[in-house]
Write a structure and sequence with these properties.
Blueprint lengths: L1 E5 L4 H8 L6 E3 L13 H7 L5 E4 L13 H22 L3 E6 L26 H14 L5 E5 L2 E2 L6 H10 L5 E3 L3 E2 L2 E2 H16 L5 E4 L6 E2 H14 L10 E3 L1 H7 L16 H7 L10 H6 L2
Parallel strand pairs: 1-2, 1-3, 3-4, 4-5, 5-10, 6-9, 7-12
Antiparallel strand pairs: 8-11
Helix pairs in contact: 1-6, 2-3, 3-4, 5-7
The chain binds NADPH dihydro-nicotinamide-adenine-dinucleotide phosphate and dtdp-4-keto-L-rhamnose.
């Protein structure tokens, strides 16, 4: 079986490759080989690929910049996804695609809120979320396609918020982190595990659908950063006296000079639906902390 992974240099792409089951041959075209900004490039590549399944990890992920670079975000997160969906449908092969918690407007910033379920109405509050919403809806127009909404992804691969926090702490910088934004962190290695568990069903013709996939626990940005610092201390990478400074989103926005997009206050994802399909509970995001820190 031949699988095409688009965006294999990103953190989810690298996690998928690091756990690639030996049963599959994989093609990983580079950004320049299949540039999502070039209409027709994706279909031309997939047409000659002899793929049995496509996994799309490409995204325009810069939440703040997306507010001004709307055409770029729209092209990569929505229009290019439509092109993948149409090509996969014509070739009669399934697509695995990723969406985000930022399709939701957010609930009040309280750790006691119930995580979002798939049945709840989206309503993005920023352009990144809006473009991802259009992309996921295009993918879901074909029943064979699987869309996994993931959130606050971190890993030992590529650039991500977890690495940013760890690097700043390692440099001894004072790190101010918001206590009033809640979400569910997701370890990219766990995303890969789940994808490879579901691929055999998809290849056998099972329906895809929409599922939430996260580390199954709502925490604040501050709690996530604290967990990373605790791991740095545990691995003796920073001294035990290192302390984070609690802040609020409003203070964080006020302290930055560049324009900031609005973000949901609480966007944790509830994963019971996916756990049922997998026949096992989702793993905690905390399983990825040791790998994150060891990789820096
Ligand atoms: N990161 C996060 O916190 C979250 C991510 N997601 C979703 O998960 C999925 C995977 O994200 P993640 O792995 O973090 O993303 P990354 O930002 O780590 O990787 C993005 C990938 O897209 C590629 N890419 C960017 N622009 C183009 C283009 N014009 N043409 C072709 N390739 C391009 C990059 O290639 P190169 O590096 O070579 O330029 C890279 O391989 C995405 O759908 C994302 O929206 C959802 C929620 C949270
Ligand atoms: C870097 C930093 C962030 N923050 C807080 C404030 C702000 O709300 C939020 C922004 O951080 P980031 O820019 O890293 O996060 P952001 O880019 O908004 O992260 C999102 O990325 C996209 C791709 C997704 O799909 C989402 O699931 C989510 O992971 O974190 C701090 O409080 N202190 C800091 O030093």
């Amino acid at each position: 079986m031949q699988i095409v992974i688009l965006g294999a240099t990103g953190q989810v792409g690298q996690a998928l490759l690091s756990q690639l089951p030996s049963a599959y041959r994989v093609l990983t075209p580079s950004h320049s080989e299949v540039d999502f900004l070039v209409p027709g490039a994706i279909s031309a590549y997939l047409d000659q690929s002899a793929a049995n399944l496509v996994i799309n990890c490409v995204a325009y992920n810069q939440v703040d910049k997306a507010e001004s670079e709307t055409a770029l975000a729209q092209r990569i997160n929505a229009l290019a996804v439509e092109e993948i969906v149409n090509t996969c449908a014509r070739l009669h092969i399934p697509l695995v695609h990723f969406s985000t918690d930022y399709v939701f407007p957010g609930k009040p910033a309280l750790s006691t809120e119930q995580p979002y379920l798939e049945a709840e109405a989206p309503g993005p509050v920023n352009f990144y979320g809006q473009s991802k919403y259009l992309g996921e809806q295009a993918a879901l127009s074909v029943p064979a396609n699987l869309v996994l909404r993931v959130s606050w992804v971190f890993s030992e691969f590529a650039r991500n918020m977890g690495q940013q926090i760890a690097n700043q702490a390692l440099q001894g910088k004072i790190l101010q982190v918001a206590t009033d934004q809640f979400g569910s962190p997701t370890y990219a290695g766990h995303i890969a595990e789940v994808v490879w568990a579901l691929v055999p069903e998809l290849l056998a013709g099972a329906e895809g659908g929409l599922y939430h996939l996260s580390g199954n626990e709502a925490v604040s940005r501050f709690q996530l950063a604290q967990a990373i610092v605790d791991e740095l201390i545990l691995q003796a990478r920073v001294g035990s006296a290192y302390a984070l400074v609690a802040t609020t989103q409003a203070q964080w926005i006020a302290s930055t000079t560049s324009p900031i997009a609005q973000r949901p206050n609480f966007s944790a994802l509830g994963c019971a639906h996916l756990a049922e399909r997998l026949g096992r509970p989702l793993k905690s995001w905390r399983v990825g902390l040791a790998a994150l820190v060891a990789g820096i």
